[in-house]
Amino acid sequence: MASDNATDYLLELDDVQAGYGRAALVLRGLTVKVPPATVVCLVGPNGAGKSTVLKVASGMLTPRSGTIRVAGKDVTKNSPQQMLAAGLSHVLQGHSVFKEMTVEENVRLGAYSVKDKGEVNDRIDFVKTLFPVVAERWGALAGALSGGQQKQVEFARSLMVSPQVVLLDEPSMGLDPKATGTVFEQVVRMRDAGTAVLLVEQNARRALETADLGCVLDLGKVHISGPADELLRDPQLAELYLGGRPAAAPTT
Ligand SMILES: Nc1ncnc2c1ncn2[C@@H]1O[C@H](COP(=O)(O)OP(=O)(O)OP(=O)(O)O)[C@@H](O)[C@H]1O
């Protein structure tokens, strides 16, 4: 009956309503689905509820209604620890490396719940290959790295639990354009290495250029969704959500 078979998606947020305390709802019937090996980005105006979507997906905020599924399994009421165990790894907004610890110590923290030493070593090899800067600066204090390099340490840490989906909240925040470019390249590398990504970004145009699928949030709901390149070419969307600049439609 339903073409949206649950097993077609690694992560599904279905008709989710959520808010903070007694305040008005922030998410008002939001549906977002993340297929395997895909970067899905959420864009939209300030306060639309983008970060709140990630908080709900990582168990930091329990929805008032609606359903969250990971690979078809209902995880709606999971705690953050249970969400992590279910395969959702959250890279928070801003910088969360421990600056006074080495890159190695920061990355190993991501594996605190993994008991098998061999598995930890395999994951270390994997993230070192994926993020060369992590390998190059393995023994350095994380605080000595640039902002973009620290973000890659955070990515590496998030991958230590072999997540199904990485939730990335504004990875370009505070970075210059060159570092932003590198960080988005690494998002694509994560996807190519088999990890799906749900990405929240202020930098809507750059995020849509990186993502496979895009969802535009407004007032706590998905206003429009589809292939990211199509959204980028949509003139109305460009006017409303991409900084008011005209769509990059061919002019010749
Ligand atoms: N911890 C909190 N307690 C109460 N209200 C909150 C909390 N976090 C966010 N909000 C409110 O929820 C709404 C949505 O915030 P959210 O951070 O999800 O939006 P956003 O789309 O990510 O915005 P931005 O792009 O500005 O980060 C805002 O009105 C915000 O003030």
Describe the structure.
This is Amino acid/amide ABC transporter ATP-binding protein 2, HAAT family. It comes from Nocardioides exalbidus. One of its GO terms (biological process) is L-amino acid transport. Residues 11-244 form the ABC transporter domain. InterPro entries: AAA+_ATPase, ABC_transporter-like_ATP-bd, BCAA_Transport_ATP-bd_LivF, P-loop_NTPase. It is a single chain. This protein is α/β, with parallel strands linked by helices. The protein has one domain: 3-Layer(aba) Sandwich (Rossmann fold), CATH 3.40.50. It is 36% helix and 23% strand. The protein is built from ten helices and ten strands. The protein has helices at residues 50-57, 80-86, 103-109, 117-130, 132-136, 147-159, 177-192, 204-210, 228-233, 235-241, and strands spanning 11-19, 25-34, 39-43, 65-70, 73-74, 88-91, 165-169, 196-200, 213-218, 221-227. The strands form two sheets. A six-stranded mixed β-sheet has the order 6-7-8-3-9-10, sandwiched between helices. Strands 2-1-4-5 form a four-stranded antiparallel β-sheet, with helices on one face. α7 (177-192) links the parallel β7 and β8. α6 packs parallel to α7 (177-192). It binds adenosine-5'-triphosphate.
